[in-house]
Here is the input.
Amino acid sequence: MVAMSSTRLAAFNITRHKIYPGYPFPLGVHLHDDGAQFAIFARNATGVTLLLFDNPEDLAPYQAIEIDPTYCRTGDIWHVWVEGVTSGQWYAYQVEGPYAPSDGLRFNKCKVILDPYATALSMQPRWDFLKAKGYDVSSPLRDLSFSPVNNMDSVPRCCVTGNRFQWGDDLSPKIPWSDTIIYEMHVRGFTVDPSSKVEHRGVFRGVVEKIPYLKELGITAVEFLPIQEFNENELAASNPITGVPLTNYWGYSTVSFFAPKAGYAGEVPAGGQITEFKHMVKELHRAGIEVILDIVFNHTAEGDERGPTLSFRGLDNTIYYMLEKNKRYYKNYSGCGNTVNCNHPVVRQFIIDCLTYWVVKMHVDGFRFDLASVMGRDEDGEIMKNPPILAEIAENPILRDVKLIAEAWDAAGAYQVGSFPGHRWSEWNGKYRDDVRRFWRGDPGMVGLLACRISGSADIYQKAGKEPLNSINFITCHDGFTLNDLVTYNHKHNEANGEANGDGCHDDFSYNYGVEGESDDPEVEKVRIRQIKNMIATLFVSRGVPLFLGGDEFRRTQKGNNNPFCQDNETSWYNWGLLRKNEEILRFTREMIVLRKRNRVLREVKFYTDRDIDWFSPEGSSPDWHSEGRSLACLIHGEKELYLMFHADFDDRLFSIPQPPKGTKWHSAIDTARDLPYDICAAGDIRPILHQESYTLTKRSVVMLVAR
Here is the structure.
């Protein structure tokens, strides 16, 4: 290599490293030959400066390396090799270029720019986004004025990291889709409450301490809300009730897609969050549990034209984002201010590089793509028939064994449940959620839709050549009411979010059974417990892939808040004290998972045919699919005959029962109206029912009979 000098070193009076041109790939920073190779994409930039810091809090770099475009630029890639750089080095960039918002160009040499490929960031006490913007907040056109404000003290630093970790014989459990049971959780919220009784609260190691609980519950995969680096302090609002500042708790506002969140690692050395994450993955794998990441490629934390310049905007705004005809403004299909231009070749490569990094280097088993329909839009915002990025993800040879889950809609009206491009993609089935909720609420005329949902949603997926395993069945998730709140509140109670209760879903298809909120009335509690069991039972007897919201198994409550994205407090945290109080629900959930695993017919990969299942009305005749009824039964043929009865009506009702196979009798496996331990029976405990021709179902209950 040809040695080079730095043209900006006089300003800092420290020259510590020799510099050589290096190479344009791979992007990011990589250690080799007693130094580090830095490479970054910036097509329309006129200058790129690499900043090196001793400490992430330093307000000036000890060396600023102005990358010479003559020797150190190959195409659109600026690159340099720096001698003596080791793991733990802090760095960032400054990028020069035209500032012309109306043309979509927003280069600003005064801003510290984060490397999009950085694998770790420093942990800032507070990222001051307002200061990072540097605009005159009184001006409605402030983004048209160039901001000379230096943001050196308001954004984190990137960290050079190595790849030293003893994975040993770690391998992905590779659980088949048919056997998968997903548990959605928030890393911090899972253990941060003192009731968790773990040593490492609110961090990756806290999850590790709870692995015995997860294993006993019987789930096979955890799906984490975003763990890529985000700024929890980006919100400017406060709780109007308490005055406490609100935070970005959920994390759906990614700053750095390759970097695990430093705040989820605890007190660790520079870059230690990578080791902490890997340790958690390794221990989950050791327990036979897969790791699925919720990943947010639809937008970034830079927001709209009034947002801060942190990374992509300062590197090439016109390439990374979809812009309006007046390129000052951003297309907003995400509902969060900007939309990532996912199908641009440069952005596609970034996304593939990111996913393969998490799979190869971090041993992740799958991804859930937030607002994935955004990824199917072209640069004009139109939905594409065969989006290149979705095909590339599905066909990438490194990602071939990875679980791919799409939230098949976006904030601009696209709704692709059942039609999301590509057969490899499974989808969050929002119709399953709504139809099951409405049936158990007692809405009339839902029996046909219930039959479709428990059968794998053939009406949604079969016409597209898909299978039940393309359906991720869920009744609750992070977004909306918890299962407890679904049977406790008629209306959302989001006042603490500071938006006058205008945020969040306006119809959760919930019902409070006579009392809004918690109740001491034993009759109200009795029906609520039964309805929780009804929905849990429905979820686990349905074909498709069940996803279960963490904490629902012990009635976690958000006090009626159906959008607690900003509530990093007891509203969102898991209260493990509820375990003992609601042990009945915990036991029922655990036994339902066992029952699902024990009966393969419930997990088959194909849709039911007429030979596999027979449908009945309570009278034993064929159902009237167009009636206003609230009751349905089905006979499932398998290794053991199963007879399921779903009764959402408001009075007890006698159901006729078909004859069991010759030489067998009907035994009761589930009756959600009965007290424990008879609400669900272990395989060795089920007993024959007294009357083999009929069964009286209590109002709002599920019964499952097994022929033995």
Q: What stands out?
A: The longest helix spans residues 522-541. The first strand starts at residue 19 and ends at 20.
